[in-house]
Amino acid sequence: MLKSIYTLVLASSLSVAQNMPKAAVYSGCTAPKTVALTFDDGPWIYQNVISDMLDSKGAKGTFFMNGNNYECIYGHPPVERLLKTFNSGHQICSHTWDHRDLVTLNATQIRAEADKMDSKEISTFTETFLDFYVAALFKILGVNTTFFRPPYGSYNDLVREVLSEKTFILWDLEQVMIHSNLHVHPDLRLAAPETLSVKHPSKARTSTMQLSAIAS
Ligand SMILES: [Zn+2]
């Protein structure tokens, strides 16, 4: 009898665990015949080179930001770059605070990596709002961001459960460099349907060349 109760409880908790809400994951555009240009790891020194080029072509990009990758996001130059891009109408999203591989972290650490950029509790913030390491994007931009890109595109069920309120945005096309020469993916030149492209602002040459190729 005891064994059957135990089995029942175990089965019940397993089914609860399996039914935990998880973050939605997208790796391609949902609208037919569209391409989304996304850029990671900013706001570093090439941030406005990229957003200005997009502006000059009448295009908008989505930028996934880190809090502490190449530099701290709270510095004066990063804040200025971030605001310039945001005020030009580009989309700003979270790429975690430290750019760590989330599958190597526990639940508390995963939560912290997200909350240092923006927090699901943002609407009820009180004293924690004053915490330096909470909701950097909200503090700088005055808005809570929507989309989230896990560093390296790395995630598992635990990551999706801990960050269940978020929408994960991956990609289905990444620019590659061979012998320092950029090879623009032919599908991108042809505006492949439903393509989510990713580039890293840390690599200005590839990013700007990619944009030039698309715009040409
Ligand atoms: Zn990244």
Care to describe what's here?
The chain has 216 residues and is an alpha/beta fold. The protein has one domain (37-215): TIM Barrel (Alpha-Beta Barrel). It is 35% helix and 17% strand. It is built from eight helices and ten strands. The chain has helices spanning 2-18, 47-56, 76-87, 107-115, 136-141, 157-162, 186-189, 204-215; strands spanning 24-26, 35-42, 62-65, 91-94, 147-148, 167-169, 173-174, 176-178, 181-183, 195-199. The strands form three sheets. A five-stranded parallel sheet has the order 4-3-2-10-7, with helices on one face. A three-stranded parallel sheet has the order 1-6-5, with no helix packed on it. A two-stranded antiparallel ribbon has the order 8-9. Helix 3 (76-87) links the parallel strand 3 and strand 4. Helix 2 (47-56) packs parallel to helix 3 (76-87) and helix 2 (47-56) runs parallel beside helix 8 (204-215). The radius of gyration is 20 Å and the shape is globular.
SSE layout and pairing:
Blueprint: H1 2-18, E1 24-26, E2 35-42, H2 47-56, E3 62-65, H3 76-87, E4 91-94, H4 107-115, H5 136-141, E5 147-148, H6 157-162, E6 167-169, E7 173-174, E8 176-178, E9 181-183, H7 186-189, E10 195-199, H8 204-215
Parallel strand pairs: 1-6, 2-3, 2-10, 3-4, 5-6, 7-10
Antiparallel strand pairs: 8-9
The protein binds zinc ion.
Residues 40-41, 95, 99, 151 line the site of zinc ion (ZN).
Domain NodB homology: 33-216
Protein name: Carbohydrate esterase family 4 protein
Subcellular location: Cell membrane
Features:
binds zinc ion; 216 residues; TIM Barrel; disordered C terminus; 3-stranded parallel beta sheet; 5-stranded parallel beta sheet
